[in-house]
Design brief:
Helix content: 40-55%
CATH topology: Glutaredoxin
Strand content: under 5%
CATH architecture: 3-Layer(aba) Sandwich
Distance between the termini: 28 Å
Mean pLDDT: 86
CATH class: Alpha Beta
CATH superfamily: Glutaredoxin
Number of helices: 8
Shape: globular
Structural class: mainly alpha
Number of strands: 2
Strand order of the largest sheet: 1-2
Low-confidence stretches: 200-205
Length: 206
């Protein structure tokens, strides 16, 4: 989720064409042995993923991205995990038919999810996991973020990723997750185009 929010920030400040593609953990883990709690999580994830696929097919990638963001705000950021209410609320926030929530139980969208996941994972391998970034013809796992960089920080990370991916010898980089600080500012909305300016003003005051 934070990778998507980060790239939205970058797109507000740089001339990049941002395109969302769904990589479904329900697909990648459907034939794997998992702990019971994680199996339950993956089985539930089919629902919103199917709705995303349906929105994309019926209204295009831009509408699907809007649904993803609206759903993610409620489920991941606000912590509301009641899919029966979160899915239609996210659809309504995007001015999409709330009846699309019924697609959550429609397995007819599963092949579209499998195709989208296979396309995204193809350049990096099925064991890469999420999130994935496709940039300048190169696909990589990550960056994994503990919070969403905004303003100048968002652009600095983007430039660093672009520099690393331009090097044919670059393969991997990692640090301990506990060393990654959560710098989320609850007063700034990463999806808002004005957030970058607000971040710069705050940095100047500090």
């Amino acid at each position: 989720m934070d990778l998507v929010r980060w790239m939205v920030q970058v797109a507000h400040q740089r001339p990049v064409r941002l395109e969302h593609r769904l990589v479904s953990l329900s697909v990648t883990n459907e034939n794997r042995e998992l702990d019971d709690w994680y199996r339950e999580f993956n089985d539930r994830a089919w629902g919103p993923a199917r709705v995303f696929a349906a929105v994309c097919a019926k209204h295009g990638a831009e509408a699907a991205a809007a649904f993803y963001e609206a759903f993610g705000r409620r489920f991941h950021v606000c912590g509301d995990e009641d899919l029966a209410t979160v899915i239609p609320a996210a659809l309504g926030a995007c001015k999409l038919p709330t009846a699309y929530a019924d697609f959550a139980a429609d397995g007819a969208w599963d092949e579209a999810l499998r195709a989208s996941t296979a396309e995204a994972l193809g350049p990096v391998g099925v064991d890469a996991g999420t999130p994935l970034l496709h940039l300048d013809g190169t696909a990589v796992f990550g960056p994994v973020l503990s919070s969403c960089p905004i303003g100048d920080d968002a652009v600095a990370l983007f430039d660093a990723m672009r520099t690393m991916l331009a090097q044919p010898a670059f393969s991997d980089i990692r640090r301990r997750r506990e060393d990654a600080l959560d710098r989320t500012d609850p007063n700034l909305d990463p999806y808002d185009a004005t957030t970058a300016d607000a971040s710069r003003r705050k940095a100047t005051r500090d």
